[in-house]
Design brief:
The chain starts with a strand and ends with a helix. The protein has one domain: NAD(P)-binding Rossmann-like Domain (Rossmann fold), CATH 3.40.50.720. The chain is built from eight helices and seven strands; from the N terminus they run βαβαβαβαβαβααβα. The radius of gyration is 17 Å and the shape is globular. It is α/β, with parallel strands linked by helices and about 250 residues long. The chain has a seven-stranded parallel beta sheet, sandwiched between helices. Strand 4 (about 80), helix 4 (about 95-120) and strand 5 form a beta-alpha-beta unit. It has helices at about 15-25, 35-45, 65-70, 95-120, 145-165, 190-205, 215-225, 245, and strands at about 5, 30-35, 55-60, 80, 130-135, 170-180, 235-240.
Length: about 250
């Protein structure tokens, strides 16, 4: 029987790469997201190739009723990847409480709601399960104008440790802290020239002089689920091209 993975924010970027990677590895995958067009595209691109393996569900992770409805059709769960989130830069003193609440709602509260329901299933299973939270290197070391995003990712790392402590040995929980990854999260309101210049500038910041690829993060997620990694839990894994060493 195939194992089952639930991947939030699965319609683009790191989430899409994770969906593909886990399908390729024989998992049944439940992919969630909020953007209907992206979800339809995901289903069209992958649904036919992985017949019977992929389930695409519209779900806002920060909406409790959406999450409850999602889990009504989930009986078994081996892997949860909390990838859904939002990012924007902010000026600390000009940010509104509403903006901060939106950031934490997407990046922290959504992961909490999804994980809460997932743990109810995982804790009853005979086999061990794995939870992977996609945080950020900014959760360890904020950059200017990222205060609330950085704080939300630091909170996610703390939640990861609490889950690992409270639900061992049945459930392992780890966080991945990427540097700058080439994903659509950086493309909003940028022309192609502006995007190219941004990516080049960001690559120059990394000691490895390159940016991360979503497929590389997905590969790390898959490796974390394997039995060879069964001694790892509560860890925050930097995967950032060395940027946290210099910035």
């Amino acid at each position: 029987m195939n194992k089952t993975a639930l991947i939030t924010g699965g319609s683009s970027g790191i989430g899409y790469a994770c969906v593909t990677k886990f399908l390729d590895s024989g998992y049944n995958v439940i992919a969630t997201g909020r953007n209907q067009d992206k979800l339809k595209k995901l289903e069209l691109e992958l649904g036919g190739k992985y017949t019977g393996q992929l389930q695409v569900v519209s779900c806002d992770s920060s909406n409790e009723q959406d999450v409850i409805q999602l889990f009504q059709s989930i009986d078994t769960l081996d892997v949860l990847i909390n990838n859904a989130g939002i990012y924007w830069q902010n000026d600390y003193c000009e940010s509104s409480l509403k903006q901060i609440q939106e950031m934490f709602s997407a990046n922290v509260f959504g992961a909490f709601l999804i994980t809460k329901e997932a743990l109810k299933i995982m804790n009853k299973q005979d086999s061990s399960s794995s939870i992977i939270n996609i945080s950020s290197s900014l959760g360890n070391k904020p950059a200017p104008q990222t205060s609330f995003y950085s704080a939300s990712k630091a909170a996610l790392q703390s939640l990861t440790q609490s889950i690992a402590l409270e639900y061992a040995p049945k459930v392992r929980a780890n966080a991945i802290l990427p540097g700058v990854i080439k994903t659509p999260i950086h493309e909003k309101n940028k022309s192609q020239q502006e995007l190219d210049e941004f990516y080049q500038a960001m690559a120059d910041f990394h000691p490895l002089k390159t940016l991360g690829e979503p497929t590389a993060v997905a590969e790390l997620c898959l490796q974390l689920t394997k039995s060879e990694m069964s001694f790892m839990t509560g860890s925050s894994i930097l995967f950032d091209g060395g940027i946290s060493l210099v910035c």
